Fold these 4 entries.
Entry 1:
Amino acid sequence: MKSYHLNKLTKIGGIVIFTLFSSFAYAQNNPLDQGDFWSRVRFGGGLGLGIGSGYTDIMVAPSAVYDFNEYFSAGLGLQGSYVKSRNFFESYIYGASVIGLFNPINEIQLSAELEQVRVNLTYDNEFKENFWNTALFLGAGYRAENITIGVRYNVLHDEDRNVYNDAFMPFVRIYF
């Protein structure tokens, strides 16, 4: 029952966020009246690499956003990661996200991001656990040019079944 409720909540939340950001952005500035689509698309994402004694963590997360105007942007992202801790566990995580960004002033960025990832874990080559993890992040950050540094909160965080240790997560977002 909890799984059904979470999936229903996730779908409703994603539709509401996408509709709000799309409606406000379109009402502010109709993109069809202004030039080329690709001139409004910015690309970015994240790369991560952590290597230690018996530990490996590799992450790739490309994304793109469309700037409806100077205040609103929305986009899509993909992510994939591999983490291995020798003699303990190995995981593969992959998925996608939808993000909406609002910049009320140049220095402040508010965000809403719906993320769905598949988690494949193997513990000591014996026990396997595979599950879907859904996150709905609400965030705020300080923006300077194309870089934003801030914190986001996963409103769907479940300590018993989540790929993230904490509901709060810092972020650095870069789009070119």
Entry 2:
Amino acid sequence: MSVRKIMLLSVPALLLLGAAYLGFKIWNTVQAKEKLKATTYYLPSVLLRKIDGSILRTDSFKNSKELLVLNYFNPECDHCQRMVQEMFRERALIKNVHWLMITSYTVEKTKHFADSMNLSQLPNVMVLNDTASLFTKTFGTVSVPSFYVYQKGKLLRKHSGECSIAYLLQQ
């Protein structure tokens, strides 16, 4: 068999193989996104650690009539810090909201953030650690800040990036 014949047979076969692989990767990505969407549509159970060391389960809020905001953040993120400043300005809007601020940073950095931002002055806001990355495994790759708003265990809104508190809480 000549080199030319081998090339004429190989190139289309390789192109077909490449197209099949690409199609599989696209299908696989769509399936993963659908699974993630199904997983987070109802409030999943994620174990998180409070600053005092006790454990909180996110699904303990699944029957709550009040809104629940899961706020994934990074203590060093400027957008996250501005969101906390807005929480203080919009204190009246969040007074009946359970607000869980979740980070994968160390307990020491998290505690420093909570203290420096005076988060103890917002009684309905809890700062939680996810050093085992259970939150990111459950909710997928999460950018900071990210927000998941639930009521009675059902997802109402999901948002990535800085936004207004009013937008997050609108129903």
Entry 3:
Amino acid sequence: MRAALLAAALGCACAAASASLAQEAIPAGPHAPMPAAAPPPGAVDPENTPEAIGEWGRRVLAGEPTGPDAARAQAMRAGARPGCAAPEDRKPHGEVTVGMGSGGYRGAGAVMTAPIGDCAQVTIAVDGARIDAPRRRR
């Protein structure tokens, strides 16, 4: 009797939970509304116009860089060095790490980065660790 009562209560609880967790139906088909993320009809992407595509083709055939590298290449030809600013403090920076364990781990490490000139840096890292499992005596 208790098992039947428990099974009936569990069944009702599962039915109530599944009804409360159900998601709404997503409309599909020819009469479904357009999703909100879609661009409105008639909107034109300026990069996909025939003129923009033709200009891109002319640049590719001429061997000029296109896309995100085009502005950087043009600045390099003009003598600018984008992204090569001298660091403000000209000091090396780094960190030291130390680890330990209760019978089975040791570790130590360090890393240092220092600027070289206006556009370069050097990074040196050293790391050491040792993992020995404790030996049990019988």
Entry 4:
Amino acid sequence: MHSDLIDPLIDAVIDREGGFVDHPVDRGGATRWGITEAVARANGYTGAMQMLSRATAASLYRRLYWLKPAFDTVASRAPKIAEELFDTGINMGPAVATGFLQRALNALNRGAADYPDIVLDGVVGPRLLAALDAFLARRGPGAEAVLLKAIEALQGERYVALAERRPANEAFLYGWLANRIG
């Protein structure tokens, strides 16, 4: 099931990110298929960024932004949440994406009546998964959609704050909100 979910997500990200880009005000620097040069180099790629293959990018996305942060374990419980964590993790880092989920679960636990607060450590672990299971069970069929809205609200606020703190990021804000939220 996880492979069935992640393969189209990887394809969609690669299609959206496109080929080689080196925007002068993007702190991420040169990218190919959305993979930054820093990420490619840190994972053993030594060639020119313009030549990074789609297959290499797909492998990096699967390993670094799906399996390593354990978003696949979220997918079996809440596939839409896992999809959002994957996408947000690519753009902001998996720990930030997981932190959004942790914050949302803590804020939605009715004062710890439904399940205990979880530590905001940016890690998908047993306590986060137990809290997610409890949230989904107690809140019923609409729970995943509400949790997704909370995560996207936190993500949107972070994008606006990034643009406010660094005016050069205003060049990206519209696209972030258009393509990464909702």
